[in-house]
Amino acid sequence: MKRAYNFNAGPAALPLEVLQKAQEQFVEYGGAGMSIMEMSHRSALYENVNNETQALMRELFGIPDNYHVLFLQGGASQQFATIPMNLLRPGRPGAYVMTGNWAEKAIKEAKLIGETVVAASSESDSFKRIPSLSEIAVPDNAAYLHLTSNETIGGTQFAEYPTIGGNVPLIADMSSDILSRPVDISKFGLIYAGAQKNLGPSGVTVVIIRDDLAEESPKTIPAIFRYNTHTKNNSLYNTPPSFSVYMVNLVLNWIKEKGGVAQIEQYNRDKTNLIYDQIDQSGGFYKGFAHNDSRSVMNITFRIHNEELEKLFVKESEQQGFVGLKGHRDVGGLRASTYNAVPHESCKALAEFMADFQRRNG
Ligand code: PMP
After folding, report:
1. What are the pLDDT digits (tens) for 110-157?
2. Which residues contact 46 (CB under 8 A, 6 or more apart)?
3. CA 238 to CA 74: how far, in whole Å?
4. Which atom number of ligand 1 is nearest to the Cα of residue 151?
5. Among 165, 183, 299, 345, which residue's CB has the most CB atoms within a 10 Å radius?
6. pTM above 0.90, yes or no
7. What stretch(es) of the chain map to CATH 3.90.1150.10?
């Protein structure tokens, strides 16, 4: 078997060890005579997986006791709607930092529910940068401030998060950088992420919510969309995506074995530097999309001056075992997604391919 150099944006590479462990346990889990997928979500075995996965999230991400960890469905896109449904109030707008496509989708849903305000935007710079913390203006009466921690399409990432005074909770979409670096969770009211980049397969969405925010869910919205339905039921209100949660459990154990999130961050920086260095040393042959201080450690976006060469780059890379290097259809160009599970070896191979491609076409 030859594993591809997988740079997919999501669903994305999973650790080989995790896939092998799942394979080992696929037909029978825990001596139950059945697969985890065939088991009741009310069984002691599954409940243990549910509880252990929450405990691992808490341990690895340093989540304080006054937060719940939820495993929901509907993807990060459903959270775009669920957040305003639960937290917007008349006279209390949702404030959004606009850094690209995903923030636009989030605010669009919120506008259907209530009032919104743009707290900062880098649209005039084609979303090539993250607004500086001093640019972010949050009204005192805001229900929350929402930001996209890592913009998967543009390849920009918050290097640090704003501290907001008063009573305004900070909410972050961490779909594409959760558990890639240590975070001070106590700065946030709510963090959410679809699993399919850094946590496991698609199908489960992790929500980390401060208890007081979960208590506020209005009774006028359907029970399934209320955060407090899920906090009260330990994410077992209805049938959970049990296999996905089990896979997240394996990925979290893998992170733990690697030494934890701080070690993962160093690993990620080292491997992505190989690619960013190649861009920076190319004398302009490759051009990074994001401003240097806003560069993402998860999604490396870049261009070649000539679109025909970009097409050739994608074609030849595929012939050499690379997958997923074509940029998002909305922005074009090239993108390498380098999530936690993407091996150093894949990044080294890509850096070498880039050097070779430039030698032949520069
Ligand atoms: N937010 C970000 C930052 C994303 O990258 C994505 C998926 N690429 C989404 C939200 C949407 O996630 P989902 O497909 O799980 O709804």
Report:
1. 999 999 999 999 999 999 999 999 999 999 999 999 999 999 999 999
2. 36, 39, 40, 242
3. 13
4. 3
5. 299
6. yes
7. 259-361
Amino acid sitting at position 294: S
Residue nearest (by alpha carbon) to ligand 1 atom 14: 75
Q: Using a 6 Å cutoff on CB, does residue 10 contact ligand 1?
A: yes
Would you place residue 12 in the very low, low, confident or very high pLDDT band (cuts 50, 70, 90)?
A: very high
Token duo for residue 15: 């650790």
Contact 337, 10 (CB under 8 A): yes
What is the C-alpha to C-alpha distance for residues 80 and 153, in angstroms, rounded to an integer? 17
End-to-end CA distance of the chain: 34
CATH 3.40.640.10 positions along the chain are 16-257
Taking 90 as the threshold, does the pLDDT of residue 319 lie above it? yes
Q: What angle do CA 340, 207, 51 make, to 5 degrees?
A: 85
- Taking the CA of residue 79 as reference, the ligand 1 atom at the shortest distance is 16
Q: What single-letter DSSP state applies at residue 271?
A: H
Class of domain 259-361: alpha beta
Q: Quote the ligand 1 centre to 46 CA distance (angstroms).
A: 27
SS3 253: helix
Q: What are the tokens at 292?
A: 């240097």
- CB environment 124-149: b (16+ within 10 A), e (fewer): eeebbbbbeeeebebeeebbbbbbbb
* Percent of the chain topping pLDDT 70: 100
Which residue, by CA, sits nearest to atom 4 of ligand 1? Answer: 175
Nearest CA to ligand 1 atom 2: 175
